[in-house]
Amino acid sequence: MGDRKEARDKEFQSFVIGRWPRLLRTAFLLTGEQHAAEDLVQTTLEQVYVAWRKVGSADDPEAYVRRVMINAHARRHRRRLKEFLAPRDDSGLVREVADSGDRISQAEDRNALLKALAQLPPRQREAVVLRYWEDLTETQVAEAMGCSVGAVKSNAAKGIAKLRAIPGLSEMVTSGGRT
């Protein structure tokens, strides 16, 4: 029994090490604040660890973890709207966890974009972050958010439209996302 637990722990640790930067970036884009992002990832991983036997054998463990993260994020938002206040200067985190090809790392005005994301309603923000920055398909986003593909399309379109309406972000959003 101890060997199985040790093997499970090693498998979970390997998963976390391989996915940490992406999970943290997604959480940061959802919460808009470094400490809230770290808390969200920690909460998510605690929940996933308890169910790792089931999660680790799933077809797509990362999709399962994203779904847990979205659900945890939604619960936090319902409890405390403070999670969605404009971000502080956390641009270093974006640089630290961003992929070299990541559009947000190339943006001239990261803070303006992050503040704009923070102003979106939660479902629009989730759809925009998962669809355009995490580059998930509409089906994957719908799975992660627990809604229909139509709801994803609607929320993403409304969120992108709101971002494009902000002076100075129009060009960034148009060139950085799918049009």
Automatic annotation (TrEMBL):
Residues 21-80 form the RNA polymerase sigma-70 region domain. InterPro entries: RNA_pol_sigma-70-like (IPR039425), RNA_pol_sigma-70_dom (IPR014284), RNA_pol_sigma-E_actinobac (IPR014325), RNA_pol_sigma70_r2 (IPR007627), RNA_pol_sigma70_r4_t2 (IPR013249), RNA_pol_sigma_r2 (IPR013325), RNA_pol_sigma_r3/r4-like (IPR013324), WH-like_DNA-bd_sf (IPR036388). GO terms for biological process: DNA-templated transcription initiation. Residues 111-163 form the RNA polymerase sigma factor 70 region 4 type domain. It holds the Pfam family Sigma70_r2. GO terms for molecular function: DNA binding; sigma factor activity. It comes from the Bacteria. CDD domains: Sigma70_r4 (cd06171). Keywords: DNA-binding, Sigma factor, Transcription, Transcription regulation. Belongs to the sigma-70 factor family. ECF subfamily. This is RNA polymerase sigma24 factor. The lineage of its organism: Bacteria, Bacillati, Actinomycetota, Actinomycetes, Kitasatosporales.
